[in-house]
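dumping this here so i dont lose it
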């Protein structure tokens, strides 16, 4: 009997020790699994300007395009650096008129071909087309004044044809045509209703807002009030665009993004709070002044690194139920300026954007987005 008790005691000690050693790696594995299957950062994308400062004015072969942009589909371990690429820009008036000219075919820049779209989609990277940009503010105004409904229908048709989403980049700061923009959105949604699952690429419709709430005030007020609510969303989400220059600290970048979360109740009319799950924050990887930013090539200590905790955990301020913004957007891949540097060899971005994607376990393909 005594020997049996001793044997049982030894067996119990052995079992406890075994469980102790087994428990640690199992716990870590479970923790990692939770992190990678339910990431707080869902959107991790780059605007793409082709090789001609965002004109997309020439047809490019996939081989030549890949030689300049391979870092986007492979951060060095065979996994894409991003899960979204936004081809920038479509000229709104040409899209309305379905213009064909030296750089455009039926309203779409001739470089935005199905081959280029499929180059990214074949690697599970979502693709969108951006309509507008700061260069095309007048074109937006003309198109919205002429026939915003037809513009929305044309945009939806292109989205369906290429299997892409559409981004609204309407940077009219003084008197935006919000009635016209509402008609554009209504027309688009009449063809492609809001899809909370994100399964239909053409149903993805987003908007660009300023870095904070002190510019594009009319647009921010309307978008936050009417189109980006958590109860009856019309647009999928917003991008808080880059400011005039790269923020010089994490706190500077975060203060801009916090303005969207807090709103501007003192304004007349007030800008309401925006749920963190309804927008991304943006950083430069190339600047208009001509330099490739550290965020492109070196993650540690970059703003992608130092703002990560905030982006993943910032709490709502009265609107929304989940912590954390949707993620990041980067301005901009390849050559956004004719006088600046490009994110082409040897200045590619695996070491910054790519390492960030790996560090934050960015899901590829992009998952369904949090709705509130």
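and the seq i came up w/
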């Amino acid at each position: 009997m005594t020997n049996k008790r001793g044997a049982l005691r030894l067996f119990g000690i052995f079992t406890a020790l075994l469980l102790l050693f087994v428990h640690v790696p199992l716990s870590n594995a479970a923790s990692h699994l939770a992190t990678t299957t339910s990431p707080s950062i869902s959107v991790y994308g780059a605007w793409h300007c082709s090789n001609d400062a965002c004109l997309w004015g020439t047809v490019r072969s996939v081989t030549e395009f890949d030689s300049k942009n391979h870092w986007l589909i492979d951060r060095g371990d065979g996994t894409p650096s991003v899960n979204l690429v936004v081809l920038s820009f479509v000229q709104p008036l040409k899209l309305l008129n379905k213009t064909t000219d030296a750089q455009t075919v039926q309203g779409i820049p001739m470089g935005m071909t199905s081959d280029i779209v499929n180059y990214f989609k074949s690697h599970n990277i979502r693709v969108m087309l951006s309509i507008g940009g700061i260069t095309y503010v007048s074109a937006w105004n003309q198109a919205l004044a002429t026939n915003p409904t037809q513009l929305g229908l044309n945009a939806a048709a292109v989205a369906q044809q290429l299997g892409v989403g559409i981004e609204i980049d309407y940077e009219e700061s003084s008197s935006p045509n919000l009635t016209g923009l509402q008609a554009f959105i209504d027309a688009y949604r009449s063809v492609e209703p809001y899809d909370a699952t994100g399964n239909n690429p053409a149903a993805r419709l987003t908007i660009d807002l300023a870095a904070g709430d002190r510019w594009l005030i009319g647009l921010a007020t309307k978008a936050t009030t009417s189109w980006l609510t958590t109860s009856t969303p019309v647009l999928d989400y917003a991008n808080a665009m880059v400011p005039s220059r790269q923020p010089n600290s994490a706190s500077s970048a975060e203060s801009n993004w916090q303005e969207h979360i807090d709103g501007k109740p003192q304004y007349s009319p007030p800008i309401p709070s925006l749920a963190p799950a309804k927008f991304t924050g943006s950083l430069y990887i190339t600047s208009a002044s001509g330099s490739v930013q550290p965020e492109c090539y070196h993650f540690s200590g970059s703003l992608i690194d130092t703002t990560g905790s905030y982006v993943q955990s910032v709490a709502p301020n009265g609107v929304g139920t989940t912590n954390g913004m949707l993620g990041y957007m980067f301005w901009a891949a390849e050559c956004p300026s004719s006088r600046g540097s490009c994110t082409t060899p040897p200045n590619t971005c695996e070491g910054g954007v790519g390492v960030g994607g790996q560090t934050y376990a960015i899901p590829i393909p992009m998952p369904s987005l949090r709705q509130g």
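The two ends are 64 Å apart (CA to CA).
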